[in-house]
Amino acid sequence: MAKFNAERESDIAKAISFFQNTPGIKKSVAAAKFHVPYRLFKARLEGRPAQNTKGGHNKALNSDQEEVLRSYIDWLIYCGHQASLVHIRLAANSILRSAGDTHVLNT
Which residues have C-beta within 8 Å of that of residue 27, sequence separation ≥ 6? Predict the structure, then answer.
């Protein structure tokens, strides 16, 4: 997956503006004029958002809850237990339940 490039996104925005304000121009011509990849330009025109707008993976825990989960993992390591993915998910779900949240992580 490609990294976010602000300059490229700026060029794509300029190409989209040019394309929308110039009647009868082809998409390939607008993409070539601003030196942007045609497929990416076309995807932005169709509404696909930029890479940086997709958000992070952890959308369930807030920052305080995440800190508690990290402390729990550190405690498991200190006690000599393996912090497996199953145990981490169970702990995260327990934190969410105790906070009254209805969202549960996939197990």
Answer: 19, 38, 41, 42, 45
